[in-house]
């Protein structure tokens, strides 16, 4: 695991937070889903359509990682897998630092990541305690289809990570359903019917309410 330089950290903070303004009506729009499910595609469409505020801070550790000069240097020298293993965790920690600064400034926040870890649910719960309205969007997609989609990506994504996150979401989604002021679920497993809105009870095999 590498260490992010002070200069790179400052560059990332400027790139991801500069020009963002606070909102009196603070909202967090949190995506959850496995890699390849279509989270970032949904965010892009929602921003373009005006459903998400265009001036929101977007939390996406993958984007932070790709913007790091250290990651790009390792990628060019040693390849995608080595770069991912070296910089995924530091980039995620830096992304969470960005999230805390965005919340301190009262920015609207879009969480464009899987939200499969306890620290992710704790971050969302903390935002709720800080007065944020919480809107959560679960983008469902089976691992086999997600693996097909990420096959052509530049960055490395371990197959076992996708399957582990799929299993983790079975319990996490029910927690998010209870936590959210508004909860939305979309089935994005069929490219002919993308982002088909479904009821949370319509997929009993992939959600655990225990």
The fold-level CATH name of one domain is Rossmann fold
So, CATH architecture of one domain?
A: 3-Layer(aba) Sandwich
Q: How is the biggest beta sheet arranged?
A: 6 strands, mixed
Shape field:
globular
Order of strands, widest sheet: 2-3-1-4-5-6
- What is the helix/strand order? HEHEHHHEHEHHEE
Structural class designation = alpha/beta
Low-confidence stretches: none
How many strands appear in the DSSP assignment? 6
Describe this structure in words.
- Strands 2-3-1-4-5-6 form a six-stranded mixed β-sheet.
- The protein contains eight helices and six strands, in the order αβαβαααβαβααββ.
- A hairpin with an 8-residue loop joins strand 5 (182-187) and strand 6 (196-198).
- The protein has 210 residues and is of the alpha/beta class.
- The radius of gyration is 17 Å and the shape is globular.
- It has helices spanning 6-17, 39-49, 61-67, 69-78, 80-104, 118-129, 143-150, 159-179, and strands at residues 27-32, 57-59, 109-111, 133-140, 182-187, 196-198.
- The longest helix is centred in the middle third of the chain and has 25 residues, at 80-104.
- Helix 3 crosses helix 5 (80-104) and helix 4 (69-78) runs antiparallel to helix 5 (80-104).
- It has a domain at 23-57 and 107-203: Rossmann fold.
């Amino acid at each position: 695991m590498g260490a992010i330089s002070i200069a790179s950290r400052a560059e990332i903070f400027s790139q991801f937070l500069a020009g963002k303004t606070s909102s009196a009506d603070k909202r967090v729009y949190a995506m959850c889903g496995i890699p390849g499910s279509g989270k970032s595609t949904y965010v892009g469409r929602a921003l373009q359509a005006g459903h998400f505020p265009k001036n929101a801070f977007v939390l996406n550790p993958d984007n932070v990682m790709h913007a790091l000069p250290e990651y790009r240097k390792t990628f060019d020298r040693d390849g995608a897998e080595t770069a991912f293993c070296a910089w995924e965790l530091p980039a995620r920690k830096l992304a969470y630092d960005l999230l805390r600064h965005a919340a301190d400034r009262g920015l609207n926040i879009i969480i464009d990541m899987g939200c499969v870890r306890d620290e992710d649910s704790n971050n969302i719960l903390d935002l709720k305690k800080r007065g944020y309205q919480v809107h959560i969007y679960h983008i469902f997609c089976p691992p086999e289809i997600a693996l097909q989609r990420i096959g052509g990506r530049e960055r490395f994504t371990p197959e076992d990570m996708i399957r582990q996150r799929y299993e983790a979401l079975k319990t996490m989604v029910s927690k998010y359903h209870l936590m959210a002021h508004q909860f939305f679920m979309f089935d994005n497993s069929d490219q002919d019917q993308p982002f088909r809105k479904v009821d949370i009870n319509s997929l009993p095999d992939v959600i655990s309410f225990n």
